[in-house]
Amino acid sequence: MTSWSSLHEGTPGGPSVLAVDFEPGRHDAGFPDMVPHLPGDLTVLATEAPRRSAVDDALTEWLAGADAGDGRVAAVLGFCAGATVAAWLAYEIGSVAPAPALVLLDPSRADAALLRAEFGKAASGLLRAAGEPAVEPDADEADLPALADHLSAEYAGIVRRVAPILEVDDDLADDLAERFADYLRYLAVAGGTAWPPLTDEERTLTLVSAHFDGDTPMPGRRVRMDVERADFLADRGVALAVTASIGR
Q: Which of 79, 98, 123, 131 has the most crowded CB, counting CB atoms within 10 A?
């Protein structure tokens, strides 16, 4: 199942939970930290980075992978920019099967400004370490997949240039460039995914961390948890709220 990775194998043929996020390289808690606090019979699957930057292709691949599971999808979870993809998956799954619960955690919408900002952070860190001045991204594309491809190529060029200065071998340099390209491609797909039509409000829950000040993009309950964002997905209370949304 190349579009999803397994975080936990539950009861064979039992219910599953789909978790939408981009984990690699992040120091804050992620969905793997939530798994120990969820019921053990649930199979938990997490999105892999999309292999395609075209939004429709990536969404179709994730949906096909979700449908490949043996049991019912009990819930779809979306963190941060992954909220749009989670909402879309829940809507599509609910159109042909029992609707899963939808849980959005600190939801946000990726846009061109975010992609450029993420490039700036990643590139400036490398350049600073190499003793070189920071650069502004040489890209003005409005189309998110095209912007992601452009910024990825620009970042790969920076990595190749500074790798000898930082004594980074070719394999590690390639890994850095590929992981950043995966991240931007994920953001481009998430940002290009429209919020779906109205879903079942009783099955939709938005959980926000202590200082989250964003909007609630989907109808349903919104609950603020007294947890810092860095620890949000590892918090037992957050996991209990997710479990309750499934009706467990």
A: 79
